[in-house]
Design goal:
- The chain is of the alpha/beta class and 291 residues long.
- It has helices at residues 11-18, 30-36, 56-65, 87-100, 129-146, 168-179, 187-197, 201-206, 238-251, 267-290; strands at residues 21-24, 42-46, 70-73, 105-108, 111-114, 117-123, 150-153, 182-186, 213-218, 222-223, 228-229, 255-258.
- Strands 1-2-3-4-7-8-9-12 form an 8-stranded parallel beta barrel, surrounded by 5 helices. The chain has a two-stranded antiparallel sheet with strand order 5-6. A two-stranded antiparallel sheet has the order 10-11.
- α3 (56-65) links the parallel β2 (42-46) and β3.
- The chain is globular and about 50 Å long.
- The termini are far apart.
Length: 291
Amino acid sequence: MDAPFFTHHATTMTAQAALGFGLGLRTDHYEDILASRPNVDWFEALTENYLVPGGKPLHYLDRIRAEFPMVLHGVSLSIGSSESLDRSYLQALKQLAQRVEPAWVSDHLCWTGLAGRNLHDLFPIPYTEEAVEHVAARVREVQDFLGRQILLENVSSYVTFSQSEMSEWDFLAEICARADCLILLDINNIYVSAFNHGFDAQAFLNGIPPARVRQFHLAGHSNCGSHIIDTHDSPIIDPVWELYQAALRRFGKVATMIERDDHIPPLADLVTELDQARGIAAQTVADRVAA
């Protein structure tokens, strides 16, 4: 195995704490962000929305980026696919990153298409040694091409594979160790998958190495009784806030961001929810230090 191009530095922990509390950048809020300069530390832009040569998306992206730090978050890398990496997508991503100069770039630990077609969903991977080596090699290739580490996010899942040889958290941690990449830990996704598959969410947190975690996601979901769907269309529920507290106790102060992709409320409502995250983090981290 070739040595990773990147070396994991102690500055990771400083960077993850410094960014603070952010929101997903959504078209509904463009004008309000520019007019009100909300109490938001940074924004997460969905990569695919801005892989265009010009027009309003890039116009607003540039204006908001001039006022706020930003990260890029993709849904089309398909890092778990058995097909070749999409070089045209990677080139467009690299050009966008050069334009935006994001604090970091992230995508999902999944596959998203087949036979060159993007199915616009985040499909799970069997947790096997073969898959670990396959994905880690692809992550190293992506990082070498982009010239930066990337973050991988744990996805919500609704099926499991009989071939799996390890837990999801061990799978994620091992890929990150072999590829020397970082983790976007989605707290809501952990809660959703734990409910759907009957595992202990705290065990997931305990299995993730703290030095790899750069960002948290928080979001709402739809509880269908027998299962939960990760819909990002409602406020964060109390059990997810409690899991966020548990994550703060384990990982310390990590850059935290709230996602809302449907039933999008006014910006002020999301800022209020973000302030709730700030308050929980401040108290939990203070208690952690005192202990």
